[in-house]
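User: I'll paste a sequence; please echo it back and then give the predicted structure.

Assistant: Echoing your sequence first, then the prediction.
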Amino acid sequence: MINALIDFIKINKVSTSEVTDALGKTGNIPGVRPINGHIHCAGKVRWIYAYGESNWDFHSQICGVKPGEIIIVEAFDCNDRAVFGSIVSKFLVLYRQVAAVVVMGYVRDAHQLIKERYPLWAYGVTPIGCFNKKVDYSFDETLIKERREMYDGTIAICDDSGVAIIPRSNLNQDFLNQLIKMEEQEDIWFDCIDRRKWDTFETICQKKYLTVKKT
């Protein structure tokens, strides 16, 4: 079912707006924005973390990523330092063939990230990076477990509007049917606006197309 959903989203370029609508106006990761525009990605999620102004454990975790995955990196107490920059981006996108990287934190080497058009989403950019050393940090193992349950095995959709997550509870035929229905509804709405010349109130609120015979 996961592959069927991902394939449908990719082929039809289902947007984060449509996905969050299907999730009842929920499901986005607040604050993350694309580093490069006009990129649409969908894939299975792997959650990874960094903490304490160090990316030591982050580097250890990315060794096991798989092609096609979307990597979600969450930074804890990194104080607006970049988790990584162009070298890690190249490693993940070119050599590990991940679909995209989403950083709940900051990245650096913006000039190179933009030049190479890497599929990256983040809070923003900064020239100041994390330290490449092991740190003594009190990390709540319960939080790690909770985050893995929240993100691992879900589907992420990334586009110009941000990032949306389809939780595991929605990875089923019913949700796929809902996305198909929403795609059809979008086509109808644009037909009403473009061809029938209806206004948006008639189209979206009153849904006149349900009662007016198609011409």
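The beta strands are 33-34, 41-51, 70-76, 82-84, 100-107, 120-125, 155-159, 162-166. The longest strand covers residues 41-51.
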